[in-house]
Structures are given as C-alpha cells and as structure tokens.
Automatic annotation (TrEMBL):
PANTHER family: CYTOCHROME P450 YJIB-RELATED (PTHR46696:SF1), P450, PUTATIVE (EUROFUNG)-RELATED (PTHR46696). Belongs to the cytochrome P450 family. The keyword Metal-binding applies. Keywords: Heme, Iron, Metal-binding, Monooxygenase, Oxidoreductase. It comes from Streptomyces kanamyceticus. GO terms for molecular function: heme binding; iron ion binding; monooxygenase activity; oxidoreductase activity, acting on paired donors, with incorporation or reduction of molecular oxygen. InterPro entries: Cyt_P450, Cyt_P450_B, Cyt_P450_CS, Cyt_P450_sf. This is Cytochrome P450. It comes from the Bacteria. It holds the Pfam family p450.
C-alpha cells in the first residue's frame, strides 16, 4: 500500500513473495511513514523494534477512541487494554494452548485427507484454494466452535462482505449485521449442551468467568475476524511457497523433521498479514524523529517487520532450514493471536499431507494474487500431477 493513496500495488507489478515497495522504503529509511485510510491519517511503523514498541507499550492504546472504530463492542477484546483485556483472554485460554492444538491433530489429518480425496477425484488442473486451503481451516474452525456446516458458511460469507467493503459506512453496516447474526448463535447455544468453544463462551457454569450474551458475541466475533480468513490465506500461501520453491520442498522431503522450522519460516517470509490492528497514541511521542500526537492512529506493519535485517539475516531469502526466530505473523504483545497454535498445526498438516499424497504435484499456469486491504495471498492455485 502506498503511503499517499488507497490504491494497492497491482499483482502484476509485485513479486508474489515480496513486501510492498512503500513499506520496504519505510523499513530501509529507518523512520515512520504515513498514509490515509478511509480519509483518516495513520502512521506506519515498520522496523521490528518499533513494531514491538507500538504493540506492547501502554502509550499506544487498543481501547482509546478511534475514528476508525468509534463503537467499542462488549467482548471485543482486541479493542481493549489491560486489565480489561485479560478477563476475556482467560475465558478462552484453555482452548488455545499448545496441548489443546495437539489434541486436534488427528482430526486435522482426517479433514485434510477428506479434502485431498475430493481433489484426487476432481483430477489434475483443480484449484487448491477453495477445495483445500479454505475448506480445511473451515472444517477445523467449525469443529472448534461447534458450528454446523451451514452456520460456518453463513458466518464466512458475512465476514467476506465486511473485508471486501471499500468504504467505512459499508463496513459498519455489514459489521452490525454480522454481530446480530452471531448474537443469535450465542443465544441458541445458551440452551444447548455442548463441549465446544462457543458453548463454553455462552456457559455460566459456577467457577467460570461468566459473560453476557453481548460479551460472548464480542469474544466469538473477535476470534473469527482475527483468525478465520487469515488462516485460510496462510495455508494457501504456504502451499504456493513450497510449490514454487522446489529446492525448499526437496530439503523438507529429505528432512521431514524440519517441518516445524519450515512452518516458522513460512510465517516469517510470506507477507500475508501486511498490517496490524491500529493503535491510538495516548500522548505526544517522538518516534524515529517523527512527532506522533495524542489521538493519532498507528499501524504496525507485521510482514515488513519480518523482513528486518537487524533481526533476520538475509531476510528476503526463503530457507526452511533457518533457525526459528520470533516472528510477527501473529502480532506481538498482549494481543498476539490466541489461535496461533491451531494455525501452525493447520499449515503443518496441510503441507505434509499434500506432498505425501501427491509426491509429484506441481503448479500449472499463472497464480493470480488476491490483494485486499491488509492481507495478501494466492487467489487461485491450480495444480497437476502424474504424467499430464
């Protein structure tokens, strides 16, 4: 995204594995950039240390009033600071531990194989994005929340409408509709028995943190918006990275024990999450020689920070043998994505199962990129295998 315009870099002029030129310029300049989003000025921070500061320093608030998000909803904990934020994170903490993610692994493998069965039936030339990169996370996320296929599809469609909007008024209207629908689901779960995350959010069992209907809806919506679409895009992008870097795919085949390193490297290297959620500066601050005033919006550039040579040597190289270093794919600080372990598991299983089932799978044709406001990923990933 250019600092001076709403227009996104076109897919044809940008390497599919490169960060935006304007964001790179900010990183290399060692300063802070700015641009208008929906007519509102935002500061952009790109260096890893600056991103850490903005996402972990109380002088940059997630709860302060913002022109971008004027209505703070109950339970929307991504728009909260400590200590309020902790109450809602504690409610969901047990569902997003590394141990909880590992317990899902058998189900994720089964879901991946089911998707791949259908891809094999469809035959060479099929598109991996709808049938695998999107479908697999949807199956797993629906199971995690206790959603039926229909419930999950309706929520996905409503989220796509919001993220595809081009003006702030449409975003607000569609968001209101989404929350109204999510509230209906929460209220329905209040009267049902279940051991999934959405039932637990709606639960008022003794000894647990009890949430109102509106609070439970806000937590549910926060989790969906933070993880659903971005995980789908990350799975597709990871498959693209390995399919288009045969030497890295070969290294992983030769040493499958590198898979955890490979997942961390893909999270670092692939510029899916280009921008973080804006913070609001609560007092005048000088950062890299720029005065940021109280009330200003500040956006951390996560994918750009992942290319900071001060932290990641040779940052533009994709190397699955690279020792893992803390990356910013899931953000930083108290708002770091709670679903990070589930996302890692999905990427790991999706890649391993695809290449185990189709050892000679390869790309066929061009790969168009889907570039939205904050996310970047392949829009289509057609593949072939066998002798064709």
């Amino acid at each position: 995204m250019s600092p001076d315009t709403h227009d996104e870099t076109t897919a044809t002029s940008r390497c599919p594995f490169a960060i935006q030129d304007a964001h790179r310029a900010i990183l290399e300049s060692g300063t802070v950039g700015s641009f208008d989003l929906f007519g509102i000025k935002h500061w952009l921070v790109a260096a890893a240390e600056d991103v850490k500061l903005v996402t972990n320093d109380p002088r940059f608030s997630s709860a302060a009033p913002s022109e971008m998000l004027p209505d703070r909803r109950p339970g929307w904990f991504s728009g909260m600071d400590l200590p309020e934020h902790s109450r809602y994170r504690q409610k969901i903490a047990g569902d997003f531990t590394l141990r909880a993610a590992r317990k899902q692994e058998d189900f994720v493998v089964e879901a991946a194989d089911s998707c791949l069965d259908d891809i094999e039936v469809a035959g060479p030339g099929t598109d991996l994005i709808p049938g695998y990169a999107k479908r697999l996370p949807s199956l797993v996320i629906n199971a995690l929340y206790g959603l039926t296929l229909e419930e999950g599809e309706v929520l996905e469609a409503r989220m796509r409408g919001i993220t595809g909007s081009v003006d702030l008024d449409s975003v607000k209207t569609l968001t209101d509709d989404f929350f109204a629908h999510a509230l209906e689901l929460v209220r329905a779960k209040r009267d049902e028995q279940g051991d999934d995350l959405l039932h637990r959010l709606a639960s008022t069992s003794d000894g647990e943190i009890s949430l109102s209907d509106d609070e439970a809806t806000g937590v549910f919506a926060t989790l969906l918006f933070a993880g659903h679409d971005s995980v789908q895009q990350m799975v597709g992008y990871s498959l693209y990275a390995l399919l288009s870097h045969p030497e890295q795919q070969a290294a992983l085949r030769a040493r499958p024990e590198l898979i955890d390193n490979a997942v961390e490297e893909m999270l670092r290297f692939l510029p899916v999450n280009q921008m973080g959620v804006p913070r609001v500066c609560v007092g005048d601050i000088d950062l890299q020689g720029v005065r940021i005033s109280a009330g200003d919006n500040v956006i951390p550039l996560y994918s750009t920070a992942n290319r900071d040579a001060a932290v990641f040597p040779d940052p533009d190289a994709f190397d699955v043998t690279r020792p893992p270093e803390g990356n910013f794919a899931f953000g930083h600080g108290i708002h770091k994505c709670p679903g990070q372990h589930v996302a890692r598991l999905l990427i790991k299983v999706a890649c391993l199962r695809l290449f185990e089932r189709f050892p000679d799978i390869r790309l066929t044709g061009d790969v168009p990129m889907n570039e939205g406001l904050g996310l970047f990923s392949p829009a289509e990933l057609r593949v072939t295998w066998g002798t064709e």
